[in-house]
Design a protein that fits this description.
Distance between the termini: 44 Å
Number of strands: 4
Low-confidence stretches: none
Mean pLDDT: 89
Number of helices: 3
Radius of gyration: 14 Å
CATH topology of one domain: Hypothetical Protein Tm841, Chain: A,domain 3
């Protein structure tokens, strides 16, 4: 099995910086991190995003086995949106 221990933090920082290009640090975001089979990497990304943004978290999720089979077990992804877009969703505060 391949391990990307040296490059994974850099890749995760890249994801955080991509989000920061769309939303300034300190923005209120609703966020969900997903992973193929990499709970540690998902936790690292969550921690990075917690330091940059005011996050309202959805539970960490696992990608489908089909996606994980194509991307490999180290895959980590994120879905995010400004918290204000949820203001009119019934049942959301």
């Amino acid at each position: 099995m391949l391990h990307f221990e040296n490059t994974q933090p850099t890749a995760l920082q890249g994801l955080a910086h991509l989000i920061a290009r769309k939303h300034p640090p300190g923005s209120a975001l609703q966020v969900q991190v997903i992973h193929a089979s990499n709970l540690e990497g998902a936790g690292m990304l969550r921690e990075m995003l917690d330091h940059l943004f005011e996050c309202s978290w959805l539970p960490v999720g696992q990608m489908s086995l089909v996606l994980g089979a194509h991307t490999g077990p180290s895959m980590v992804g994120v879905a995010f949106a400004p918290q204000e877009v949820f203001a009119e969703v019934p049942g959301k505060e």
